[in-house]
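Hi W., the S-adenosylmethionine complex you wanted:
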Amino acid sequence: MADRRGEVVLVGGGPGDPDLLTVGGLRALRQADVVLYDHLAPLACLEETRPDALLVDVAKIPGGRQVSQEEINRLLVEHARTGAMVVRLKGGDPFVLGRGSEEWLACAEAGVPVRVIPGVSSAIAGPELAGIPLTHRGLSQNFAVVSGHVGPGHPASTVDWDALATGSGTIVVLMGVTNLGAICAGLVERGLAPDTPAAVVANATTPDQQVVRGTVATLPDLAAQAGIRPPALTVIGAVVGLDLASP
Ligand SMILES: C[S@@+](CC[C@H](N)C(=O)[O-])C[C@H]1O[C@@H](n2cnc3c(N)ncnc32)[C@H](O)[C@@H]1O
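Structure:
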């Protein structure tokens, strides 16, 4: 077994179901001296760590306790410099809207060896386990995964909402619960047909998974009525009209 001491391993933990952690991710977790994890990581997988491993909660909970990204970067470097094998366990894939690349750069700039083990992204697995394929011959040949942290028209959004509204592909919005109304209205204003099928999937791949289906015009109200809370993702496009979860 290779000596991993003094190294940081960014592990994609998948969207929540512990079965979706990769074999490589599981192996790294079992070897780790220190694990930095947050609330979107599959917490059940922490049972796989060594009894003497140090487990550090670095959650950034929306509207709640926040450990800054700078502090997380600092902790990664500090622990690795003690000679520890450090795993940074993240939800989904580390490099999909997950700031894993910032952590990678912070380690590299500090001269700390770092590698990444990809994970199953919620952007793909979430719709899939709700019965929605992101592509389907004749319906959609492409998909875009975008951040809904800020909505259409917001000066901080670098998403090309016009292109999404007029394109033929599937749209997957992460971090978009708060702005769901603005996102759906913004897409319709930019040319998306209001009767385009749309769905929200909350707590995807976990026993608490919740799926709400509607159209881009009706989804915000339906999601509010269903009490949808993060973590949740939104899928918009003709493929939502398929329901592969129902027999
Ligand atoms: C900071 S992003 C990280 C995404 C992650 N890197 C990935 O590949 O899945 C967090 C967002 O991912 C989505 N997300 C993560 N896990 C989810 C889950 N189990 N169910 C639904 N959405 C989820 C939500 O939109 C959440 O706000």
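The first strand starts at residue 8 and ends at 12.

W.
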